[in-house]
Structure formats: structure tokens, C-alpha cells
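Support request from a user on the community tier.

User writes: "When I paste my C-alpha cells into the form, the page sometimes reloads and wipes my input. The last time it worked, I copied everything first. Here is what I submitted, just in case something in the input itself triggers the reload:"
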């Protein structure tokens, strides 16, 4: 073996060792992304109606007679409803505590809109209450302050009835992760500003169609 051949063999051996030491020498690529879909908890979902200043009626938990929740101002008496939805983040199918959130979408199915001629603006607020039992004062934004919020683009109109609406809540999910919340809890309400008479009914069925129509949170994370 010539001196040149020996040097070449040594160089090739060192190169091979270097490649082995760094896992093949190539970039493993971007971190893998995962997507999970979490249905809301029908036992904790509910709404709160403000019947008069400081007086509230709480409905929590879906049952044979309660299969939906409401948000907005009802046209008959002018009282306001705010919906509360609860999504468990821990356990199988949840979101790991150390996950980096790429996106999050809240899907709601609109059952009805009263009156049919109205146009309702909505906002989604991240809230946190444990145990997840609704109190009348959770209606109030001072008693139960928002941790973050998003304004839903556009207005809810008759054309939205009978459809599934997907709302970007990525900022809320990122905030929930930062705070280490074990539940993603949101208050769905008419947006702030001049009062608009209009009541939105959101499907929260516990029947066989729940997987299709009930509130769902879709989270993509790394």
C-alpha cells in the first residue's frame, strides 16, 4: 500500500466515523407535527343567561332535554346569553404540556338564528375556572376576566344556520399552553359594542351525531 493509498484510507475511515457520530450527517428535517381533535365535554358545557342586572340563570350539562347552548341577545325579552365550552387537554388524545402549538380551530355547528334577519358579531374568550362548574358570575367579564380573546371575522347570518363554522383560536390555545391549563375553556358571546338583538343556537348534541355536530377543538402541534 502506497503512502497516498494509506492516507486516503484513513481519510475515508474518519469521514465514515464522523457521519456515524452525527446520525448520518444529514439534517433530520423539521420536527414532526401532530393533530388531535377534542370534543367538548357535554357534562360541563353550558350557557348563562343574564335575566336582569346581577341576576343569572345557569344551564350546565347536556341532557335529553338540553342539546344546545346559546350566545347573543334573545329577541323576545332582550336578555343576553353567553356560552361556555370545556375541552379537556390532558389524557389520551389531548395536547402534551410541552407541545408547541402550530394552530387551533374551534368548530361549532349552528342550529338556528333568531331573528332570521339579524347579523350577530361574536367573540371567543379564553377563561379558566376549576372545578369546571359554572357560576352565574362567570357571565360577568370583571368577575371572570378573559385571559385572551379573538374576534370572529364577519357576522353570523342566516346562511350560517345548518353549517359548521370553523374559528381560528390559535392565540387562545397558545395562551392556554403558556399558563399550563388542563382544560381549554372558552366563553362565546356577542362582541362588545352596540347591542345587536340576535340569538345563536350552537349544537351540543349527545346523540349519535355528536362526532359531527358537537363543538370540537382541532389542535396541530409539535
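"...and here is what came back when it finally went through:"
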Amino acid at each position: 500500500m502506497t503512502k497516498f493509498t494509506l492516507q486516503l484510507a484513513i481519510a475515508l475511515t474518519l469521514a465514515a466515523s464522523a457521519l456515524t457520530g452525527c446520525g448520518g450527517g444529514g439534517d433530520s428535517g423539521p420536527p414532526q407535527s401532530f393533530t388531535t381533535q377534542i370534543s367538548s365535554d357535554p357534562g360541563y358545557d353550558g350557557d348563562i343567561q343574564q335575566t336582569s342586572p346581577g341576576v343569572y340563570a345557569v344551564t350546565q350539562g347536556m341532557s335529553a332535554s338540553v342539546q344546545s347552548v346559546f350566545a347573543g341577545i334573545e329577541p323576545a325579552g332582550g336578555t343576553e346569553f353567553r356560552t361556555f365550552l370545556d375541552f379537556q387537554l390532558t389524557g389520551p388524545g389531548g395536547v402534551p404540556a410541552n407541545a408547541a402549538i402550530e394552530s387551533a380551530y374551534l368548530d361549532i355547528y349552528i342550529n338556528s338564528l333568531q331573528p332570521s334577519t339579524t347579523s350577530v358579531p361574536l367573540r371567543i374568550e379564553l377563561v379558566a375556572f376549576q372545578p369546571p362548574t359554572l357560576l352565574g358570575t362567570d357571565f360577568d367579564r370583571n368577575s371572570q376576566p378573559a385571559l385572551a380573546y379573538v374576534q370572529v371575522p364577519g357576522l353570523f347570518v342566516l346562511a350560517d344556520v345548518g353549517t359548521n363554522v370553523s374559528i381560528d383560536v390559535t392565540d387562545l390555545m397558545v395562551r392556554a399552553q403558556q399558563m399550563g391549563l388542563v382544560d381549554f375553556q372558552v366563553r362565546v358571546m356577542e362582541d362588545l359594542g352596540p347591542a345587536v338583538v340576535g340569538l345563536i343556537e350552537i349544537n351540543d348534541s349527545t346523540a349519535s351525531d355528536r362526532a359531527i355536530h358537537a363543538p370540537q377543538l382541532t389542535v396541530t402541534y409539535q
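Agent notes: The reload is a front-end session timeout and is unrelated to the input. Residues 30-221 form a domain with the Jelly Rolls fold (CATH 2.60.120). Residues 50 and 117 are 23 Å apart (CA to CA). Escalated to web team.
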